[in-house]
Amino acid sequence: METAKKKNVELREPAYYNNRELSWLAFNERVLEEALDKRNPLLERFKFLSIFSSNLDEFFMVRVAGLQDQVKVGFTKPENKAGMTPKQQLNEIAMKTHRLVDLQYETLQNNLLPKLQKENVEFVKMANLSADQLVVMEKHFEDHIFPVLTPMAIDAYRPFPMLLNKSINLAVVLQDEVEQAEEGQKIAIVQVPSVLDRFVRLDSKKGSHKLILLEDVIAFFIQKLFHGFKVISASVFRITRNADMTIHEEGARDLLKEIEEELRKRKWGAAVRLEIQQPGFDPAILDYLTDELEVHKKDVYAIEGFLDLTVFFNFYKKMAPIWEHLVFEGKVSQLPAAMETGKDIFQKVSEQDVFLHHPYESFEPVVQFISEAADDRDVLAIKQTLYRVSGDSPVIKALKRAAENGKQVTVLVELKARFDEENNVQWAKELEKAGCHVIYGMTHLKTHSKITLVVRKKDNKIERFVHLGTGNYNDQTAKIYTDMSLFTSKRQFGIDATNFFNYLSGYTEKPEFHYLSVAPFTIRTDIIDLIDAEIRFQKKQGNGRIVAKMNSLTDKTIIMKLYEASNAGVKVELIVRGICCLRPGIPGVSENIQVRSIVGSLLEHSRVYFFNHNGKAKIFLSSADMMTRNLNNRIEILFPIVDEDIKEQVKSILELGLADNVKAREQDAAGVYHYVPRKNDEPAIDSQMELFRRAYQVAEDEE
Q: What's the pTM?
């Protein structure tokens, strides 16, 4: 097959690319499809509705906010892949998001809530309560809600309040009972307290639950807050603000303090979206709010139902233990076969590399590794990168204990991990108090790599143990994110890890590595070299093949090289969960490329890169997606799997993902995703459930 160069195909043509933001919305649509999927248990469908809303909140706070800022300053240059200007992107985003939100609420109102009612859970309106029930609710309002409320009047002395990001509020129009003229009308804002449970439970029969929205209760009794005034209307609304932080790293004498200051500002960014509850929203208040908040009409979302469906995530967590028949069957992570009992973890890793695949295999060995290092008399030093950790992190506890035990502990805590900045600032302070040496990363770069080095002196010899992974050191997300990691004691990995940490913590030139490839320096060029090798093998042997699994693919240089490989005849199979700017199946451009996305009960998070290499497969795991931001602006690690048995394990996992015909969708040449079709006689393959089955089987065989 002729190459793209010979065909004179212009690979930069915008028609060959998906816009980043619209591709993300397509991913969130796949999340929403899980809420529509009747094969999923009812509570799980509510959870997916919640995840869809949470994703959309963050999308507006960061991506839409950034585009709006570009429009405000008159930036009109098209983005460099699909060629859309900021204004064009905002228009397309608004059209697609309005459609998706309408579908979300149609699913809630017409499908999920009626099914929930069959389970004896009903959302009721205050207006439909009996006289006796109203008496009960009035007492509840006066005893538990009224004392927390703060009405905020708006007049010449009290301007429009700075409302919290993502808060739900009531805009109340009041008429002075003495001054009956229209100019006697006033406006006040009442914020729905986030400290109170959003769902107020009405006393009901055993086994039956009647729930009322907190804002509905407040609106019904709102008159009690405004004596001497008549309430004309009470309209429920929610605002989303620009939450992207601007950190001036160059001039920052103390990055931690700089970030703490920016965190305070985040709550008060410019409004980027206004959601209003219909029916019954006062049209005059809508005009007032859009003017006061400076929100464009296309960014106003009129919701037929209650606002902020992220509330269903807490609802799911609260009800899942009670309604086991309405959630996915619980799956238990297994101890990896390589982790036999009776040996400490250092002995095991000194004998062989150990591969873990979470959550099918337990994250506990990772916690155990750091915990044993903290207490082991022979351990001299622990060095670790932390990007996101859990609220009550056993990893943090072990690192603090290690420092208290006299170990030299160095921890790179990435303070700029978006929406985890506050947690990470707190962890950094706690680690420092315990005696750890804490560093915050490098100027203008986020440290996104996942690596731990333990240095040990045994029998008068220095040993180095390394853990490398695709996911964070977070024991909670490790239960719901699919990730891969590796323990090794190989000497050259240990040397690479030492040089990597010395580079991060001190003043030294970028080191040369034996095994590691590190962004922003070499990952892109190394991946391109590997693709070029597949092109050469295809031309000589006809066996070029690339399989890559990642969260997102946006880097244009990588995409163009994959197009070139496709035109050379290389078979390219991509498993990309989220954003994918590459379009497969375009004749003469990407006809040998397949793109699929798996969205299921677990969040696909591992990054795996396979190159056939003329039958001598090269397989790499990485903290990095093939995104421009990861390859240019983050400290990332790409590392090889060198053990042949582990290579076969990883290859088998990839092949299973390519065989999934239950939760997989394929992208067509127009950039649209469709469920993978399955023939009548073809067995259903849910890759996530099959991986759990395999893990169980291995555990049984070991017994």
A: 0.93
